[in-house]
Design a protein that fits this description.
The protein is built from no helices and 31 strands. It is mostly beta strands and 395 residues long.
């Protein structure tokens, strides 16, 4: 059975690149890129609002929260010295309003003739350590000393709060940096220090709105290549030990809290964990990417579920629709999208049984899923794509 296509976007102008994040909240679909956040009607594709960082193009968005708590997304932006987004998005000037900037320090642009615009298709037409060694350059650009964090209401495009913080407190600020993640109203950072005794890695968690350090916990000694996968809850991937000749066999997930730290080993015959673990209730589900030669037939990924509290194994589910999958927690269930974005499967988080399944006409490479109510939005995260967004109604 196929889900009903509501609308899809057409080919984008210029080279806007892959979205940093996407969300579906109360009838609004929003996409973030380094140069701003744009919102559309979830069921119509009608442009709603457009928010740009302040500074006449000098500020860029580096990170966004993976979720929207009470409809508010957290945006980390800084002075990047360049636009970093659209090369040519086809927009034209609207007189004095072009340079308008809100008093709240975050640019406000209500123009709606942007990337998707009238090209959409509807159903009708089918510790705060003060050591210099902790500071990171911004991907080859000038060193960033301070960043600004802003809470943005996705339903209206209005700023709820905004503040500054020292850049070295929040890890690498370059887009896609693996040692920082935003989510659940928190900023999660991993800080690694190399000494004669080996690598010591600490997880620090800050309140996103106030910047206050909430807690910090060390990871086991000898673990390396720590990546923060999610901040709400905090899930960190590591490799090790440092002298291991087979790093894939030593990959580990750490579910880290103020009082607990649970480790999950990568099972044999798999080369990696997926980048998007999710927790539904007390069940953690994560993709396991199989080890296989490039010239062999794609076997499909496996979703493995364990207890988030104890790491105890619960169930596995295997996809036969491509090598990558993307799990999403929605309405107390797990919705799993295959990597080509053409099929969604609903699983019961308690036992992994299939509850429902829909095909999603069309395809998207490196597809990700966001959902609100009975609407699913498939977002392509590849840098270039003929259709960035496809939105479906489940029933």
């Amino acid at each position: 059975m196929s889900a009903r296509l509501l609308w899809r976007s057409e080919r984008e102008n210029g080279s806007p690149g892959a979205p940093l994040g996407s969300w579906a909240v109360d009838g609004t679909l929003a996409l973030a890129r380094p140069d701003g956040i744009r919102a559309y009607g979830l069921t119509t594709g009608e442009p709603l609002w457009n928010r740009q960082p302040p500074g006449d193009g000098t500020q860029v968005i580096a990170h966004v929260s993976q979720d929207a708590v009470d409809g508010v997304v957290v945006v980390l932006h800084h002075d990047g010295g360049h636009r970093g987004g659209h090369e040519d998005d086809g927009r034209t000037g609207d007189g004095p309003e072009d340079d308008r900037r809100a008093d709240d320090g975050y640019g406000d642009d209500r123009r709606t003739d942007d990337d998707h615009g009238d090209d959409r298709h509807t159903d009708d037409d089918h510790e705060n350590d003060d050591h210099e060694s902790d500071r990171h350059p911004n991907d080859g650009h000038a060193r960033v000393l301070r960043v600004r964090l802003t809470g943005l209401d996705l339903r209206t495009g209005t700023v709820v709060w905004t503040r500054e913080q020292r850049a070295d407190e929040v890890g690498s600020v370059g887009a896609g940096a693996p040692d920082v993640a935003l989510g659940g109203g928190r900023i999660a950072v991993v800080a690694a220090r190399v000494s004669d005794g080996g690598t010591k890695t600490t997880v620090r968690v800050f309140d996103a709105r106030t910047g206050a350090l909430q807690w910090e916990r060390p990871l086991p000694e000898g673990r390396r290549d720590a990546f923060v996968l999610t901040a709400g809850p905090v899930v960190v991937s590591t490799a090790g030990p440092e002298d291991s000749a087979s790093p894939h066999a030593q990959l580990r997930l750490h579910v880290v809290g103020e009082d607990v730290r649970q480790a999950i080993e990568l099972p044999p015959f798999h080369e990696a964990f997926g980048a998007q673990p999710v927790i539904v209730g007390d069940t953690l589900a994560v993709e396991l990417v199989p080890t296989q030669p490039y010239d062999s037939q794609h076997l499909g990924s496996t979703l493995r579920a364990v207890s988030a509290a104890t790491g105890e194994f619960r169930w596995t589910w295997s996809s036969t629709y491509g090598r990558m999958i993307f799990p999403l927690a929605h309405r107390g269930a797990l919705v799993v999208l295959n990597g080509y974005g053409d099929r969604a499967t609903v699983l019961d988080p308690a036992d992994g049984r299939v509850v429902a399944e829909r095909s999603l006409p069309g395809s998207s490479f490196q597809a990700r899923l966001v959902a609100s109510g009975d609407c699913l939005a498939v977002v392509c995260t590849a840098p270039r794509t003929p259709a960035r967004v496809r939105v479906f109604r489940w029933k």
